[in-house]
Amino acid sequence: MHVKNIFPTWGTTIEIGFKEFIEDNQTSWADLLLERNLIVFKGFGPGLSDPEFFNFGAKFGKVWTIDDYRAPVVGETTTMMDLTVNDTATDTPVSHFTSNNNNFRDGVVGYHADMVHIGKNSYPGRALYMTRNAINNTGVTSWLNLEYGWEQCTEQEKSVYDNIEIANHNMFMANQFVELFPFLKTNPKTGKVSPRLNSMAWVNHMRNSGTVLTEEQTKKLSYDLIEILEKKPNTLYEHHWDEGDIVVYDNWFNLHKRSKVEDTGVPGGRLLRRVSFNFE
Questions:
Q1: By the 8 A CB rule, do 127 and 57 touch?
Q2: Which of helix, strand or coil describes residue 126?
Q3: Do residue 157 and residue 22 come from a single domain?
Q4: Domain region containing 38
Q5: Are residues 63 and 35 in the same domain?
Q6: Which of 69, 97, 139, 219 is the most exposed place for a label (fewest CB within 10 A)?
Q7: Are 180 and 204 within 8 A, CB to CB?
Q8: What does each of the 280 residues of the chain score in pLDDT, given as a tens digit?
């Protein structure tokens, strides 16, 4: 096993074979992930089966079952199955993302945090597995470390958001199940603090000292802070995918985005697999 840190404070690359990884009972992989925020695994190759990838995720926490994917958000009476789940009859469900089975498809995907919204599965860990890459390794994925970026902000930069609250809604049903949250959130596993930024798909509006802000005002507050955080040292990691790469991350600490995917001519198109897990 070869370990190399991406930044001194967060992000690690590990070269290891799948058999060695699965048989490793000495490393607390969940603790390492929570310490480093994000781990890039190289050396597995693109040939893992869905059950093998599911078992990979189990090294970090409780991997989502079909029941987890079906669980309704608090306040809702209906369930909504993730249509990217490859097999809803299996005990080891894995999401398969291609250019024709999800709303984001092959276009640019802007900054977002994969929050279900409210409930016990709102901030899961994620593992992304590049099984079949795009042309010229397009579809670069970037992670912005909100925790480390906020830590580096000046008191003046932070003071702009002293009286801000964020109202989230369900991304699939805009303006429904709206709930108001503090601007800052605290990672329950690490105690690190970060702004509760997200895509406007999740954000209904912001409030300043109780006054509801317009969509444009909400966007400006979000984008201004993102620009500040991007300019802080060692806050932005861009991953150029090789086939077989697995990137595992704690969804609490970051916003992430993806550039446009060029996969015309790739038989079957780009295939990125994902498992979600809850830290235990």
A1: yes
A2: strand
A3: no
A4: 2-145+238-278
A5: yes
A6: 219
A7: no
A8: 999 999 999 999 999 999 999 999 999 999 999 999 999 999 999 999 999 999 999 999 999 999 888 765 555 555 566 788 999 899 999 999 988 788 778 889 999 998 655 555 566 899 999 999 988 888 999 999 999 999 999 999 999 999 999 999 877 777 888 889 999 999 989 999 999 999 988 899 999 999 999 999 999 999 999 999 999 999 999 999 999 999 999 999 999 999 999 887 788 889 999 999 999 8
Task: Tell me the two tokens of residue 105.
Answer: 């498809």
Name the token pair of 157. Answer: 């930069």
Spell 125-153 as b/e; 16+ CB within 10 A means b: bbbbbbbbbbeeebbebbbbbbbbbbebb
Sequence-distant (6+) residues with CB within 8 A of 27 are none
DSSP-derived letter for residue 271 is: E
CATH code where residue 121 lies: 3.60.130.10
Residues 96 and 94: their CA atoms lie apart, in Å, by: 6
Overall number of domains in the chain: 2
CA angle 176, 182, 184 (to 5 degrees): 125
Q: Which 3 state secondary structure label does DSSP give 272?
A: strand
Q: Looking at the structure, do residues 111 and 207 belong to the same domain, yes or no?
A: no
Helix (H/G/I), strand (E/B), else coil: 223: helix
Tokens of 41: 């695994």
